[in-house]
Write a structure and sequence with these properties.
binds magnesium ion, Dna Ligase, domain 1, Rossmann fold, alpha+beta, five-stranded parallel sheet, 18 strands, 13 helices, nine-stranded antiparallel sheet, binds adenosine-5'-triphosphate, D-amino Acid Aminotransferase, Chain A, domain 1, single chain, 394 residues
């Protein structure tokens, strides 16, 4: 069945107004669309680039009425939008992805249970409900264990690592604090060779496009950099893409998704989690692909044909966290950054710098992967404020 296309000129609604919403807006406006952002935080960066903006609470009934009067289709840039709001919105407008997908993804336990019920490989996991039951979980899964709040964590927040028996008591204390109406999931810590992620875009008719796997490194639970293509064999790359496409199809997901994977030491690929939106590890697509993850989101939201996915160049994306942004983008640092061949700077326009906060990123492209990696490494040594590993020209 052919779905109607929303043509340029239409107003697209976005739930959430962070940098992902701002980058979506950039893609949408370039393609002739207008954008309305709804984010309760008046300081959220996407408000400033949008045609219309709403900054009331997601619980505000008056705003939801005004929102659907303003927009013709809706997408989101944050998976923790209240499901009830999404259910109401999708009775009136197309919402991509759907509330049903969000309901599964918002809760790490529900998500992992769903994936394993579809025979998709995930790390061994269990729900942790009490101090007493924690011990049963430990005897079943062993140590080390990573315990995560079932809901609303990001950048490694809301995670607790139990490496050895002496660290159990501390976590028991957290479990017993009265504030814990919180549900927890415990996962076996995977000894991985590398982390990968795969972007999958899937249309309302089930048409699918998949991006090459990127290789991601984290520092203290926060994405440090992503390299594309990943240094994996062709068959592993195919397996990662195949698994990711299957996961999104099982979800009946319509939208852009990022499937985060572990390549375990024993060679297995395991799904860590799925984001139902563009992803930080996919920012390289802005500079190194025919069609970016944000343009795909516009296309799928409007019912347009999906874009051809072609990697135009190897790329390394490096995040700028907290005051790293000042180190590499002021004074002499700025001159060096902007004079690096193939360096493309993206700043998110956040007013307040906080430790670990994603302030922007720089993507390095080069005809050879090794050149892009070397540029990124040199940049990283400046980010870390260390003497550069590669001597600069005299
Ligand atoms: P993000 O916002 O970056 O996606 P998040 O807070 O949603 O992160 P996860 O993706 O679950 O949380 O975990 C963040 C990182 O912690 C992972 O990318 C990985 O490096 C590490 N990690 C999480 N779970 C495991 C696990 N079971 N075994 C090994 N490492 C893990
Ligand atoms: Mg993650």
């Amino acid at each position: 069945m052919m779905h109607p296309i929303l043509e340029p000129g239409a107003m697209l609604g976005v739930l959430g107004g962070g940098q992902l919403g701002a980058m979506f807006t950039g893609a949408a406006r370039r393609m002739g669309y207008r954008v309305a952002i709804w984010d309760p935080d008046p300081d959220a960066p996407a408000h400033r680039v949008a045609d219309e903006s709403f900054s009331t609470s997601f619980a505000d009934h008056d705003t939801r009425e005004r929102f659907i009067d303003t927009v013709q289709a809706i997408t989101l840039e944050w998976e923790n939008i209240p499901v009830e709001l999404c259910q109401w919105l999708e009775q009136h407008r197309t919402l991509r992805p759907s509330s049903a997908v969000l309901r599964i993804i918002q809760d790490r336990l529900t998500q992992k249970q769903f994936l394993s019920s579809c025979s998709l490989p995930v790390p061994d996991f269990a729900e942790v409900t009490s101090e007493h039951q924690l011990h049963q979980v430990i005897s079943r899964l062993g140590l080390p264990l990573i315990c995560k709040t079932a809901r609303s964590g990001y950048d490694g927040k809301g995670q607790w690592l139990i490496r050895q028996p002496s660290e159990i008591a501390q976590f028991e204390q957290i479990l017993s604090t009265p504030s814990s109406g919180v549900r927890w999931i415990a996962e076996q810590v995977v000894t991985f060779v590398r982390e990968l992620s795969v972007l999958v875009v899937r249309s309302g008719t089930g048409e699918t496009r998949v991006y090459p796997a990127s290789e991601n490194r984290h520092e203290q639970g926060i994405l440090r950099d992503s390299i594309v293509p990943a240094s994996i064999s062709l068959s592993d790359a195919e397996a990662a893409c195949e698994l990711s496409v299957r996961a999104v199809a099982e979800l009946h997901g319509v939208g852009i998704f990022c499937v985060e994977l572990f390549q375990a030491q024993d060679g297995r690929l395991l799904i860590n989690e799925i984001a139902p939106r563009p992803h930080n590890s996919g920012h390289y697509t802005l500079d190194a692909c025919t069609v970016s993850q944000f343009e795909q989101q516009v296309r799928v939201t409007c019912g347009l044909p999906l874009g051809e996915v072609r990697l135009l160049s190897p790329a390394v994306m490096v995040n700028l966290l907290g005051d790293e942004v000042t180190t590499v983008l002021s004074g002499e640092g700025s001159r060096e950054t902007f004079s690096t061949p193939g360096a493309s700077v993206h700043l998110y326009g956040k007013r307040v710098i906080r430790r670990g906060r994603k302030m922007g990123h720089v993507t390095f492209t080069a005809p050879e992967r090794a050149t892009a990696v070397a540029s990124a490494q040199q940049f990283l040594s400046r980010v870390h404020n260390l003497p550069s590993a590669i001597p600069s020209a005299p």
